[in-house]
Design brief:
alpha/beta, 7-stranded mixed β-sheet, Ubiquitin-like (UB roll), Rossmann fold, 5-stranded mixed β-sheet, Alpha-Beta Plaits, 28 strands, about 700 residues, 21 helices
Length: about 700
């Protein structure tokens, strides 16, 4: 029996798979079908009726989004059914639907934030009547509380239920629903509480009218006033595609860009709403500590102080790279300090031991973010993807919901929005996993996947955890010629890129914990704000970063740096995919790109680096012509090609597997980096989450 079906659409005969909806078939034939409730990534609701088409012989117009092609019958003579997406019949049907939709919709366009990018506006022009026959008073609906991110004007709502389906199906928090019926129907949140999902801002993009808009962006700008720049997000290690919308010198908003392999079309709330933190608490000029106080200085004065600090013995100088460091800055800093003989360089959190063997596949997510949709069993070790990679967590949920993915977790029991087998909390569970039922699930799976988080790797037995996890992956068949089912989920955008350029301890060099442990005379911090800086002792601390956060507070010399929206910079995501940000606005004040700061310092200390432009530095990273390096191509994840490198066992290291529990690496999803901590919006979200987590006594 054939799996395809023939149709004649607007006189053009096509053949499509039987599982297609009639709307998909019409679009395959080149027809444009208007819609409000239908969305490619959500279940079919069929409640706006805007997608009506004519099926010749049918008694009434057909809602094309809800009609599956396989359920249609051919004509009596066996010929393909005739579908018309144009003509008087279809136009009259759509005119009527649009008239109903606008019965209660207010004429808010002049004051509505959705104006200029509103589906209702566009479709009313294309498919609406010239006037309305409705003379009665319009209804009004009370606005609802959806928290500090989503602004509601519910009188504009057309009950498409996209937000309801997104919350239930993608975000996994059933907190939005419809109450009442008929004229009184309205969308509301559960007990009118704030949304608790890390993905709640996506309902703003999904809403086809102005009912749900961005609260922080309200009344800031019109879409036609904004400069739109495609870039990459650095709030986590996923590298989601984003569009930075700027007006004048400021970023006004950040929106997702569809990238099927990374973030589909979703974006986490942190990535979307931190834009106000890009302008607050910024370091816009150099500072040098004088008489115990950080005082503004010129670049010349700052460089003179840096020269003095770097004149110490090489073994007494340490360099640590932070979470948001771009590849160019890591490369320039590494080249400079190696030329000075400094071997104490590290880009990993204190206690981490991975990356030193030079095998890239042992510190990237080999199965890829998209690969979880192919997997049928997933073991998470010491990671909470809901806060470490929120958009990827939604993809895991999708695979669990629609693809029968089985998930097991070793680590802290948390709400991941999907069911999983909680195997245990620490290293002893990992050591004895072969005796668990979930081990059989992994063994019987066609595409098993084992993912380790930094919570399991940043501890004394981190190397043993990595070795044990890889052995589990090898034993259950997760490493095959066409499937590399083992990987590390990072949470810092700059980590993999810094590892790729070799930002690790050199010969006899010290790691992060020792550099920050009080034995150094000079410490250089490249945007380091998430580590314990209380034990640096009497060392001279040079901080290169963008915000006045923990690192700058401990510093003796502060060199202001550009953020990811202010430069063209290379980042490598957790899958090993090389990506680039694009400059959307100019750096603030006297801030400069990180690589340029180290190029200037190299001239001051007499070790001039061999590149004068970012392009020259990048061509050096890409290697000689004809020779392939990690940085040779953009947007490519190695994936299954890494399987061969994963077949060898890893030495467990000097410390054996310990039974202690894997600890979480992120305490507060909204405040994980200096940009987020400078954001007023993120502070509100954090305060609200803390309040929701507080136990309430029974009355």
């Amino acid at each position: 029996m054939s799996d395809t079906f023939k149709l004649k659409i607007d006189g053009k005969e096509i053949e499509v798979p039987k599982h297609y909806t009639l709307m998909q078939a019409c679009e395959e034939a080149g027809a444009e079908i208007p819609r409000f409730c239908y969305h490619e990534r959500l279940s079919v609701a069929g409640n706006c009726r805007m997608c009506l088409v004519e099926w010749e012989g049918a008694p009434k117009p057909i809602a094309s989004c809800a009609q599956t092609v396989g359920d249609m019958r051919p004509n009596r003579d066996g010929s393909a059914p005739n579908i018309r997406t144009k003509g008087d019949y279809v136009q009259k049907a759509r005119n009527g639907v649009m008239e109903f939709l606008l019965i209660n919709h207010p004429l808010d366009c002049p004051i509505c934030d959705q104006a200029g990018e509103c589906d209702l506006q566009d479709q009313a022009v294309a498919y609406g009547r010239g006037g309305s026959r409705f003379a009665e008073n319009k209804r009004a609906v009370e606005d609802k509380n959806m928290g500090p991110l989503v602004k509601t004007i519910m009188t504009r709502c057309i009950q498409c239920t996209r937000c309801v389906r997104f919350a239930a199906e993608v975000a996994g928090v059933e907190e939005i629903g419809m109450i009442s019926r008929g004229e009184n129907a309205e969308i509301t949140t559960y007990l009118e509480k704030s949304l608790t999902s890390e993905l709640s801002g996506n309902v703003i993009d999904l809403c086809p009218v102005g009912a749900l808009t961005s609260k922080p962006y309200a009344f800031n700008a019109r879409p036609w006033e904004l400069r739109k720049t495609n870039s990459i997000d650095v709030m986590d290690a996923m590298g989601a595609g984003i569009r930075v919308d700027a007006k004048g010198a400021g970023v006004m908003r950040i929106l997702p860009v569809t990238n099927e392999e990374v973030n589909e079309e979703w974006l986490s709330d942190k990535s979307r709403f931190i834009w106000d933190g890009l302008a607050r608490q910024r370091l816009d000029q150099p500072f040098v500590r004088t008489d115990g106080k950080l005082m503004p200085a010129t670049w010349g004065e700052a460089f003179a102080a840096v020269k003095t600090a770097l004149s110490k013995p090489a073994e007494k100088i340490g360099v640590v790279a932070g979470d948001l460091i771009e590849v160019e800055q890591a490369k320039a800093a590494l080249d400079l300090f190696r030329s000075l003989g400094v071997q104490n360089t590290d880009c990993r959190p204190a206690g981490a031991a991975y990356g030193t063997d030079g095998v890239r596949e042992r510190y990237i997510l080999n199965p890829t973010l998209m690969g979880v949709e192919e997997a049928d069993a997933l073991l998470l070790i010491g990671t909470n993807p809901r806060v470490e990679a929120a958009v990827w967590n939604a993809r895991i949920r999708k695979s669990w919901l629609w693809g029968d993915l089985k998930v097991g977790l070793i680590g802290e029991a948390v709400d991941l929005t999907y069911k999983y087998d909680h195997l245990g909390t620490g290293g002893d569970t990992l050591a004895n996993i072969a005796s668990s039922d979930f081990y059989d699930v992994l063994k019987n799976a066609k595409r098993p996947m084992v993912v380790v988080g930094e919570g399991a790797l940043c501890r004394a037995d981190g190397q043993a955890v990595l070795a044990a996890a890889l052995k589990v992956a090898q034993d259950v068949g997760a490493v095959a010629d066409d499937w590399a089912g083992f990987g590390v989920l990072h949470n810092a955008a700059g980590r993999v890129g810094a590892l790729d350029v070799g930002f690790l301890p050199g010969e006899n060099g010290k790691a992060t914990a020792d550099i920050l442990g009080g034995t150094m005379e000079t410490i250089v911090l490249l945007g380091v704000d998430e580590m314990d800086l209380s034990r640096t002792g009497g060392a001279t601390v040079i901080y290169v970063g963008s915000h006045g956060d923990a690192g700058a507070a401990h510093a003796d010399i502060v060199l202001p740096c550009a953020t990811y929206t202010e430069m063209d910079a290379t980042y490598v995501n957790t899958e090993g995919r090389v990506q680039m940000t694009t400059r959307a606005v100019q750096p603030k004040g006297e801030a400069r790109e990180g690589w340029a700061i180290f190029r200037a310092i190299s001239g001051v200390v007499g070790k001039t680096l061999p590149y004068d432009t970012a392009a020259a530095l990048r061509s050096l990273l890409q290697g000689p012509e004809g020779e392939s390096t990690v940085f040779s191509g953009l947007g490519f994840a190695p994936g299954a090609s890494g399987a061969a490198a994963l077949k060898a066992a890893i030495p467990a290291g000097p410390v054996s597997l310990q039974s202690s529990r894997f600890t979480k690496v992120i305490d507060d999803f909204y405040l994980t980096n200096p940009i987020a901590r400078a954001s007023k919006t993120m502070a509100e979200c954090s305060a609200l989450t803390t309040a929701l987590d507080t136990a309430v006594a029974a009355e």
